[in-house]
Amino acid sequence: MTKQLITIMCAVALIVSACVADLEPVSLPVVDYTSELRGMLSFDSTARRLLSGVYKRNEGTTRFGDRIAVAYDGQVVTMYTVRGVAFFTLRGGIANDSVKLVGVWRGVQGSETGIARLSIRPSEGGREIAEGKGNGLGLILRGEITTSSGSRESYVIEKVDATNLRQLDFEIIAHRGGGRNSERLGVSENSIPMVLLAGRLGATAVEVDIQRTRDGEPIIFHDPTFTARTVPSPYVIGDVDNYTLRQLKAVARLVNGETIPTLDEMLDVIIDSTELRLVWLDVKAPSVMDAILTSHARAVERARQRGRDVDILIGIPDDATFSAVRNSRLFGSLEIDPKTGTLPILCELGVDRVRDVNARVWAPRFTAGLQSTLVAEMKKEKRRCFVWTVDDQNFISDFVSNGEFDGILTNYPTLLAAMFYTSPKGR
Amino acid sequence: MTQSIMVVTTTVFFMLIQCVDAYCQQSDSSKIAPQLEPISDSVTARYQFEFTVVGTIGVTRYEDNPTRFSSTNRFRGFAGLLRAMWHPDHLLSIGVTSGYILLSEETFASGTAGLLESESEVQLTAFPILLSFAMQPGNLQIGAGVGAYMLTSATRIAGEEKFTSSDFELGVHAWAGYDFDVFSGFSVGPEVSLHVLSNRGIGAFHAGVRVQYDLLY
Amino acid sequence: MKQLLVIWLVLLLSVRVTVKGAEGADTALVKPATEDEQHYIMAATAVDWWRGGLSAGVVFSVLPQPLTEYPIPAPMIELRGRFALPLNLAIYGRLGSNIATNIGQIGAMWTLNLPVVSLGGGLSGFITYGNITYIDGFNVVHERLTFYPMATASLRLEKVTLTARIEAEVLSYRRSRLGDAEGDNGNDRKNQDVIGYTRYDRQLTGGAITLSIEQPFWKNTHILLGVTFAYSRTPYQAWFLYNTFDDRLFSTEFFAGFIL
C-alpha cells in the first residue's frame, strides 16, 4: 500500500512539475529608491551626459564582460552589456561630491536578475559630476551587484570613451514595441507598458504591428489569431478581425493583463511619454489603410504641437500593402520631408518599389546579407536603410562591423545597443 | 531550472519505485514458482471492437478568472463523448474519442462595469478529436487520449449581435471506467475523466455513466 | 508536451495494474527473454550474440515554447536499431528525417542482466543536418555533431519491458549558414553576402531522460512507445529557430514504432 501511495505521489509530482508554465515573467527585485537615495540631490541632464559613454571593466565580476555602454532614458541611467545581454536601470543622486547609483539589472536572454549599487568617489569623478564639468573620461563606478542566487559580487568599471551615445545617428529598433513575450519582461509585447520600457532596454525606436478589428479599427497586435501566447482568456480565440473593438476591450487581456491598444492610443503614448525618435508601423491589415493614414496624420500633428521630433513611418511589408498605400485616397496627404524629399514610408520590398513610392526607408530582410552596393545607392538618394530582424549575436556583429545600415530591428535592443555602442562605429 | 530538477528527480524516483516494487514481487513469486515458465496473457481480452457512449457532468477550472467581470475560475459543465476502440490480443487497445463538451457559460447582468446597460453572455464549448489508448485489467479500463480540441467561443457583449469564433488547441484526455455486464455485448458502469488543455490553462474533471457495446461479442 | 507527460503516466500506471493482476494468477512475474521474445530496441537487456532488432515509427517533438512562441509539434519518421555483439556489447543507432531535419546516431553500449532489471551504459555520436528553404526566399543550412554518454536501466515485466535512459548532451561542433536568397529585393545576391557561423563548442549543453515501453501489440508484433524529456541549450529539432536564450529549454519527444 505504501509503495502504491508513493508511486501515486510521484506521478502527481511529475504532473504538477510538468505543468509549471515555461514563460513565467522574471520578477525584478524591488528597490526602495526613496530610502536608498535619501538626502541626495537628483541627477540633472548634465550629470547624465557626463555618465554616458563606454566603460571598461577594471575589477570584480566578469559576468558582464569587459565593455559596458552607459546611456540614459529620461531620468533613468541605463547600462547595456554584450556578455550576459544585461540591461541596468539605475537612479542616481549626488551628495558631498559623491555620486550614488542604485537600481536593478536583468539578463534578457535568461532569467538572471539582481540589484546594482554603484558609487563614484569625489576623487574618481564624483566632484566633476557634482560641479557639472569635464567630459567624464576616467570616472570610476565601483560597488557591488547581487545575483539571482543571492550572492554579492564586486564591480568596478571606468569610463574610457565620452561619446554621448544617444546622439548617434543609428536606430536601435525594438521589435513588437520593445520585446517579445518570450523574453519574460513582465509587460506584454505590443502593449503600452512595453513601449514605455523600450527606451530602458536600449531602443531608440520601436516597431509595432497593426491588425484590424471587425469594425475596421486599427489595433496594435502581432498575430492574425488570438492564442494563449498573446491573450490567455479562454473566450478570446480565433481570428482577430472576428471581434469588434468593444468586444476586445471588454474581454481580451494580454498575457500580463494589459488591454490591446488602438493605433491612436499607442501613438499618443509614444509621443507624450517616451523619448523614442522613430516608430515603424508594421501594417498587417492593409484593408484599413485609410484609417491607418488618418491616425498617422493625427499623430504627426500631435507631435508637431508638442515639439516632439519623432518619425512615424508607414511600413510596407508586401505587395498588398504597397497597393493599399498607393491607392489610398489619403496617400496624397502624406507630408514630404523637406530635408530628404521623401515620404514617411518604410518599404521592405525591392529598391524599385522604394523609389516608386518615394519611401524614406528601405528595409530588407537580414538574410539578404549586407547588400553594400544597394545600401550606398539608397543613401545617395537620401534614404535611410534598416535591416530586420537580427537577434543572433553572430549576425548582429556582422551587420554592425561590416554593414552600412542606419538601423537594425531586433528583439534584443539591449544586445544591439551594447554591441553597437562599444564597437568602433559607436564612437 | 527548478522545473528541470523536479521533472528529472520525480521521474527517476518513479522508475526506482517501480523497480523496487517489481523486485519485491519477483522475490515473492519465486518462492511459489521457482521454475520460470512460459507466460500467458495475464489479462483476458474483454472485447475486440468496442463502442462506448459516455455522459458526464463536471467542473471546469481555468487558470485565472476568464474575464475581468468573472467572479470565479470554476464552472459547471457537461459532456457527451463517443469512443471507438480496437483491442487486439494483448494489453493495449487503440481508438478515437470525440464528442461535445460544455466548458463554461457566464452571464453578466446589466450594469456590470464596462459592459454598459445590457446583459452580456459568454460561452465556451469543445469538440475533441483524440487518438486514444487504453488498457483493461479485468472490468476496469484506464485510458488516455491526445489530440485536438476545437474550441468555440460564443459571445454577446452589451447588446451587440451574438457571434462565435473557433480555434484548435492541443489537449489530453484521461479516463478510468468500470464495466458491469448487463447482457450479451452490453455493459454499463461509471467513468471519471479529465480533460487538460494546458496551453490555454483549461482543466475539466467529469464523472458520469458509460454504456459500452462490444461489436464482435 | 505537458499532455504527453500525462499520457505517459497513465500508460505506466496501467502497466502496474496489469502486473498486479499477474500476481493473483500465480504466474511468474519475470522471465528471461526467449529467443522469440527478444524484441529489445531501447532496453538494456542483453540478448543473444549477433541478434539484431529494428523499429520503424514516428517521432513527435514539441519544440521549446520560448523559441516557437507556440507549442508546435515537429514530426519525423525514424528507424531505431540495435545489434548484439559478444561480451554483452551492443551497437545501437537511429536514423530520422522530416526532410528539413535529418539525424543519424550510432553508439555502443555494454549491458548486464540482473534478476529483474538490466543495466547498460554507452556512448553515441549524433549528427544533425538541417536544410530549409523558406517560402519567402532564403535558405538555411545547419550541421552539428553531438555526443551522448548514457546510462540505461530496464525492468523486465511480464510481456512488457520498461526502460529508463539518462543521457548527457555534449555539443561538439555546429555550423549554420544563410544563403541562396532568391533576390526578391531586386539585387543579384553575391556569395560574399552569405552569412553564418561555425562553432566548436565541446560543451555540456544539457541532458535528457527517456522512458520507454516495449510490449506486444498484435499477435507477435511488438511496439515501442516512449517519451524523451530533454533539457538543452541547443535543442536539435529547433536548429532553424535562432535560439537566443541563455537557458536550458524543455522539450518533449514522443516516439512510437513497430518492432520489425
Supply the key terms:
heterotrimer, A: 427 residues, alpha/beta, Lipocalin, TIM Barrel, 2 domains, eight-stranded parallel β-barrel, 20 strands, globular, disordered N terminus, B: 217 residues, mainly beta, Porin, eight-stranded antiparallel beta barrel, 1 helix, elongated
Short overview:
By secondary structure, chain A is an alpha/beta fold. Chain A is built from 13 helices and 20 strands.
Can you tell me about this structure?
The complex is a heterotrimer of chains A (427), B (217) and C (260). Chain A is 29% helix and 27% strand. Chain A has helices spanning 2-18, 33-36, 45-51, 126-131, 192-201, 245-251, 263-273, 289-306, 319-327, 351-356, 372-380, 393-402, 413-421, and strands spanning 41-42, 53-60, 67-73, 76-81, 86-95, 98-107, 113-120, 140-146, 152-161, 171-174, 205-212, 218-220, 225-226, 238-239, 278-283, 311-316, 343-347, 359-362, 384-387, 407-410. Helices cover 14% and strands 56% of the residues of chain B. Chain B contains 1 helix and 9 strands; from the N terminus they run αβββββββββ. The longest helix of chain B has 31 residues, at 2-32. Chain C is built from 2 helices and 11 strands, in the order H-E-H-E-E-E-E-E-E-E-E-E-E. Chain C has one domain (2-259): Lipocalin (Beta Barrel), CATH 2.40.128. In chain C, 10% of the residues lie in helices and 55% in strands. Chain C has helices spanning 2-24, 65-68, and strands at 52-62, 73-84, 89-97, 101-113, 117-133, 139-156, 161-179, 195-199, 203-218, 221-232, 249-259. In chain C, strands 1-2-3-4-5-6-7-9-10-11 form a 10-stranded antiparallel barrel. The chains are: A alpha/beta (427), B mainly beta (217), C mainly beta (260). Chains in contact: A-B, A-C, B-C. The interface between B and C is large, with 53 and 56 residues.
